[in-house]
Amino acid sequence: xxxxxxSRIPGxxxxxxxxxxxxxxxxxxxxxxxTRSQIGDRTGVSRPTASQIVARLEQSGLIxxxxxxxxxxxxxxxxxxxxxDVLVGLALDVVPDGVRASxxxxxxxxxxxxxxxxxxxRSAAADVRTARAEACAAAGIPVARVAAAVVGVQAAVxxxxxxxxxxxxxxxxxxxxxxxxxxxxxxxxxxxxNDVNLAAIAERDxxxxxxxxxxxxxxxxIGLGAWLDGRLHHGTAGGAGExxxxxxxxxxxxxxxxxxxxxxxxxxxxxxARAGVxxxxxxxxxxxxxxxxxxxxxxxxxHDLVEDLARRVAIVLQPVVAILEPDAxxxxxxxxxxxxxxxxETTVAALRATDQRAGTVVxxxxxxxxxxxxxxxxxxxxxRTLLLAAAGRPDHxxxxxxxxx
Length: 405
What we know:
This is ROK family transcriptional regulator. InterPro entries: ArsR-like_HTH, ATPase_NBD, HTH_MarR-typ, ROK, WH-like_DNA-bd_sf, WH_DNA-bd_sf. The chain has helices at 13-31, 36-43, 47-59, 124-139, 178-186, 195-205, 259-263, 265-275, 286-295, 300-324, 333-352, 370-390, and strands at residues 34-35, 63-70, 76-82, 88-95, 98-104, 110-117, 146-153, 156-157, 164-165, 189-194, 213-218, 222-228, 231-232, 328-332, 361-363. It is α/β, with parallel strands linked by helices. The chain folds into 3 domains: 13-71, Arc Repressor Mutant, subunit A (Orthogonal Bundle); 88-199 and 370-388, 2-Layer Sandwich (Nucleotidyltransferase, domain 5); 208-363, ATPase, nucleotide binding domain (Nucleotidyltransferase, domain 5, 2-Layer Sandwich), CATH 3.30.420.40. A hairpin with a 3-residue loop joins strand 11 (213-218) and strand 12 (222-228).
């Protein structure tokens, strides 16, 4: 009987070098500075091979010596660490009046940040170029080292085309092929993502350990981010979670016709004025009303506001819980953060008064810059992938290796 033959192709020396180099670089990213011997021991290669790996990675400009440690026997050994500044990512949160931006490395560390206020002649190109230049200047890193970007927008983003729809106030930004437009401007790969989806990623990074949760974003606009079975749910055309447009059945609460009318920014201001939150009238800007809620937390007026708002949030959550049945619902956005645990607890009580299973409702664990923090997380992973892809190519250094002393 003839023995079966394998269809696998033996690894070529070049392929094996690349695999070894990437394994070593990934080890250094995860573990921090290591010596040649430690790299060899942890990757399972011989010490001569480990020395060759270190030489190639250093020649590529991906690692550098960072000091020395005393070994168990013999002289001190040099430690090596990843040069995480050679490729960095740009995280952008696009808001009605400008852009918040951060430069981050492959470890997710923020190296520099800025906030750009847009003028009356606003354009997407001017916004992102200015944000990149200012954030890189704050980080002390050349603009040319930005290798990827993630952009959060208040819109539904079509995954295949990069088109955006259901857009709020965003003058000067194209609706068609936004991703392609930004890639042309920045000269790097760009991900364009819905802002609430990025906020959901920030919630996951803040310690949510459920397999599924839904983030209800309560702000001037209303949105829903769904983290299901370990991944974001986008929908076919990127419109999943645009819950603000969902019609509201007759509830007897007021004359609301959709979710935005029921719990959006304008309604919150009205509810604050009705409850007597100090300093709030129906003409007060939304942001000022949110500040007033924070300032008077625990007061009778804010208690009344929370009671009214919770009944409304329960109406919004009934179809969400019925269809998705997530392990938890998180109340985020400026309104959700300002009202905090009190709104979450009161919403659960309101849900229990219905036929709908209440489930777990909690306050957001990300009180500030949730969208930007989510964008940082995603772009850091993209930069890590690019760094690993650069390993094993000593003839094509990412940047020139550092000049000794």
